[in-house]
Amino acid sequence: MHPLIRVEQLQAILSDPNVIVIDCRHDLAQPAAGRAAYAASHILGARFMHLDEDLSGLKTGLNGRHPLPEPEALAEKLGQLGINAQSRVVAYDASGGPFAARLWWLLCWLGCEQVQVLDGGWQAWIAAGEVVSDQISEWQPQTFAFSPQYALHVSANEVLANLSEPQFQLVDARSAERFIGQGETIDPIAGHIPGAINRFFMLNLLDGHFKSPEQLQQEWQALLGMQRPDQIVHQCGSGVTACHNLLALAVAGLDGGRLYPGSWSEWCSDPARPMLC
């Protein structure tokens, strides 16, 4: 299944009971904003998942700002939303796709193959004049069968070991300014992991939509050179926008990369780990 779906494609299948739309709108500075936006208006029939409460696990202060949820806990929440093995899940947000991409990656991690991100997100749906609602639909809870794909991510210890014995290339999805340690407003320490290269996730977009597969492939191959996608580990500030880069590579036909979920927010929590500005 193609990782993206266009507005007109979603509109054509919206009445299919197996199609489950998930609203992932979020604002890092105002965590309650996404739920409020959903309550005010959302794609007809959409359910809501919160980045902090549903798409992340418990924080310890040492595992990053958005640690991975426990697979069992995430599967339980998905089942409560009426999602099962036959469901086709479509995620959207209003920020260019990073929060929807987080759900896309998490579902791939749980072994789900029928998951897509709405290209252009909420803005594209509104611009097309499609149906929205403030009504919360009812749904029947389901059992979400899952099979975690643990090989899709790496740990902080694996990243640390990679510094002395390189096995993969880190790609940081944060802005160029944050990557070089300027204008850090979220994490307590500025900088980046040694050896990482930078690809700001917003570079995957053009006018709010993902660039064409051909353009994405050209740009990413220029960045990665001869390295294969499966030799790449993606990170960002907390393992969210890195999923956008993974999604872009899937669009380009270059999927196979892994995620470092803890990312910079986990890495910089231990002053013994090497850091660069």
**CATH homology-level superfamily of the largest domain:** Rhodanese-like domain
Rg from Cα: 18 Å
Number of helical regions: 10
Please indicate the count of domains.
2
Mean pLDDT, rounded to whole units?
A: 97
CATH class wording of the largest domain: Alpha Beta
Beta fraction of the residues? 5-15%
State the CATH architecture of the largest domain.
3-Layer(aba) Sandwich
Order of helices and strands: EHEHEEHEHEHEHEHEEEHEHEH
Strand line-up of the largest beta sheet: 1-6-5-2-4
Range of helix content: 25-40%
Low-confidence stretches: none
What name does the CATH topology of the largest domain carry? Oxidized Rhodanese, domain 1
Q: Number of DSSP strands?
A: 13
Structural class: alpha/beta
| Biggest sheet record | 5 strands, parallel
Which descriptor suits the 3D outline?
globular
List keywords for this structure.
2 domains, Oxidized Rhodanese, domain 1, 277 residues, 10 helices, alpha/beta, single chain, globular
How would you describe the overall organization of this protein?
This protein has helices at 7-13, 33-40, 71-80, 98-109, 121-127, 156-164, 176-179, 213-224, 241-251, 263-267; strands at residues 4-5, 19-23, 42-43, 47-48, 88-92, 115-118, 132-133, 169-172, 197-198, 205-206, 209-210, 232-235, 258-259. It is of the alpha/beta class and 277 residues long. It folds into two domains: 4-133, Oxidized Rhodanese, domain 1 (3-Layer(aba) Sandwich); 153-267, Oxidized Rhodanese, domain 1 (3-Layer(aba) Sandwich), CATH 3.40.250. The strands form four sheets. A five-stranded parallel β-sheet has the order 1-6-5-2-4. A four-stranded parallel β-sheet has the order 9-8-12-13, covered by helices on one side. The chain has a two-stranded antiparallel sheet with strand order 3-7. The N and C termini lie far apart (40 Å). The model has no long low-confidence stretch (mean pLDDT 97).
